[in-house]
Specification:
alpha+beta; 26% strand
């Protein structure tokens, strides 16, 4: 599952967000970003969404079974934001 989940655990009221992530983990799905970069939820150094007011958040995720993902990267803000979207892409390869 990949997309804009509107979840940034650095924001307030994270109880429901924690529950959602735990539910996915119970089924064997992990955030590939967090697995690859070894960062905690809410402590992401790379942002995926950039508002015109300068605010930036990590709200886009790839939740998958890690063993099928062979590569993962986050697109560069300079290459995408203001040209194509207010989000950067999550770029990955799947081995099936």
């Amino acid at each position: 599952m990949c997309g804009d989940f509107n979840i940034d655990l650095a924001l307030k009221n994270k109880t429901d967000k924690d529950y959602f992530i735990k539910l996915l983990e119970d089924y064997g799905y992990e955030s590939i970003y967090h697995k690859e970069f070894d960062e905690d939820f809410g402590e992401e150094s790379t942002k995926t969404f950039f508002k015109k007011d300068g605010s930036k958040y990590h709200i886009d995720y790839l939740f998958s079974k890690p063993e099928i993902i062979s590569s993962f990267a986050v697109g560069d803000k300079e290459d995408y934001v203001d040209k194509w979207s207010d989000h950067v892409p999550l770029i990955f390869e799947v081995d099936i």
